[in-house]
Specification:
Order of helices and strands: HHHHHHHHHHHHHHHHHHHH
Structural class: mainly alpha
Number of strands: 0
Strand content: under 5%
Radius of gyration: 27 Å
Oligomer: single chain
Number of helices: 20
Length: 497
């Protein structure tokens, strides 16, 4: 922590000196012909403390920042006299929700693709993931953003006004999904053929059905699909942890789904009405009930059963939330006929039910989040693949196989856990890099976030917004590295000693 604090301090001095020497903050006022020119110059000098040496201005800023340790930050004012604290809170809220979501998605998708590519080394799926990773990594951020604005917003808004999917597009979608799933699952030729044909047929029929009933404008899952999704999550989690032969863990997951169905009817009113407080309370109740079920029914594996039950309950809660969101999509379309916005992070003065408000809050995140996710996705997938391949070749993995352990246990308990250690380091640095990289993305999509705050300070030779940007990004880098160190100890018990 001491070294991190010293790095932050030296970095702040360096950045402050660069900021104040990047131009003349009074240039526009020196050239103005306004009658109150002298008063405007005096006001700006007072707001920016230009009447004192630079090191004294920096000291004033540093003293204000040091008050953050007692939760009383004073980041000063910008050149127009506006409080930087207020500007920073608004900007940080927009940027952090964007960057946090992009980081989570990139980790989940990138690590999953990297693991599958390593397991299916030199397969068609591996080649496709490798090609896509290099392609995404090479694409300019601003160009990807412009393409998404054209195809993900403008053309989608035109399509959703009267949505329909042609037979050709349906067939192409079905074949692509079938080929992708087949390459992931693998197996002999007969298994691949059956998987591909069954998946292609199912997707073709599903898209055709959705198109015929107008599902694109009036979507919903229904309790049946919610239950199926929760059951699938329980089966997958059981398979990945102990295997389906462990009936106690499997029964714990199934009992959790049954408890979720009962809770669905008990809290139906709260679910429909929504609200972040109520949703959080219901989720905590579901987690507590799931933990009890796993502990009671788990037997000797009650620890694993508890976590599987909690994961199943989380999947059930996520499916219920998704169902409610889909049910309010039509209401959101009535308020916003062109739902995907290309500019801004939200509709001003938007009023409506809770779930409709979530749509307004969420659709603005889609395009910029996709841009940042694609950027990070490439590195996560490649690093994970490389780390997994290196781990799979280690002696302890060969020993685990020689002891007769199943491939599932070898991959999840021996290979994956050790392969994630270097990935943790990448996550720590990537989060801070994404905040810095979001400057371009926010500029393209017109977000009033940290990027806009930084660029405004840079253009106006105003160090206060620039230093506020540095405080957030620098602190994020330090905190993420600290979390990485803690995660190391969790992944590898030897590090705890």
């Amino acid at each position: 922590m001491g070294i991190s604090a010293l790095v932050l301090l030296l970095g702040s001095v360096f950045l402050y000196v660069l900021a104040i020497n990047s131009g003349d903050p009074l240039e526009d006022l020196r050239e103005t012909r306004a009658e109150n020119r002298e008063q405007l110059i005096e006001a700006r000098i007072r707001n920016m403390n230009l009447d004192v040496p630079w090191y004294q201005r920096y000291w004033i800023w540093l003293v204000g920042v040091s008050k953050c340790f007692v939760l009383a930050c004073d980041l000063g004012t910008d050149r127009d006299g506006r409080n930087i604290n207020t500007l920073l809170i608004s900007a940080a809220e927009a940027t952090l929700r964007l960057v946090t979501l992009a980081t989570i998605l990139a980790i989940i998708i990138g690590v999953t693709l990297g693991i599958l590519a390593a397991i299916r080394q030199y397969s068609g799926f591996d080649y496709v993931v490798t090609f896509a990773a290099f392609l995404f990594f090479s694409l300019p951020v601003f160009w990807v953003a412009v393409l998404l604005k054209e195809y993900g917003a403008i053309r989608f808004n035109n399509w959703i006004a009267d949505p329909s999917v042609s037979w050709t597009a349906t067939a192409v979608i079905a074949v692509l999904v079938g080929v992708t799933l087949t390459s992931i699952i693998g197996g002999d030729r007969r298994r691949q053929l059956l998987t591909g044909v069954a998946t292609t047929l199912f997707v073709f029929l599903a898209v055709t059905y959705f198109d015929s009933v107008g599902w694109w404008r009036r979507p919903a899952l229904g309790l049946g699909l919610v239950i199926l999704m929760a059951l699938a999550a329980g089966v997958v989690l059981t398979s990945l942890t102990t295997g389906l032969r462990n009936r106690r863990v499997l029964y714990s997951a199934l009992a959790t789904v049954g408890a979720g169905i009962v809770g669905y009817f008990i809290f139906q009113g709260w679910i429909v009405e929504g609200g972040y407080g109520r949703l959080l309370l219901m989720y905590l109740i579901s987690v507590a009930v799931a933990a009890v079920i796993g502990w009671v029914l788990g037997g000797w594996d009650r620890g694993v059963a508890t976590w599987v039950s909690i994961g199943t309950a989380s999947a059930f809660a996520l499916a219920v939330s998704l169902d409610q969101l889909l049910r309010h999509w039509s209401g959101f379309l009535e308020r916003e006929p062109r739902p995907i916005s290309t500019i801004g992070s939200g509709s001003p003065n938007f009023e409506g039910p809770f779930w409709t408000g979530v749509w307004d809050w969420g659709v603005q995140l889609i395009l910029p989040t996709l841009v940042l996710t694609v950027i990070s996705l490439a590195s996560y997938s490649r690093y994970t693949r490389s780390s997994m391949l290196e781990t799979i070749g280690q002696d302890y993995v060969r020993t685990a196989r020689s002891k007769g352990l199943s491939e599932r246990v070898v991959m999840t308990k021996h290979a994956l856990r050790n392969a994630l250690i270097p990935i943790t380091t990448i996550v720590a640095f990537d989060f801070a890099n994404l905040i810095s990289g979001a400057v371009v993305t926010e500029t393209v999509f017109g977000w009033q976030g940290m990027g806009a705050l930084f660029i405004r300070g840079l253009n106006l030779v105003d160090p206060a917004p620039i230093m506020a940007f540095y405080v957030v990004t620098g602190t994020a880098a330090v905190l993420m590295n600290m979390m990485a160190d803690i995660t190391y100890a969790f992944l590898d018990p030897r590090i705890r000693r």
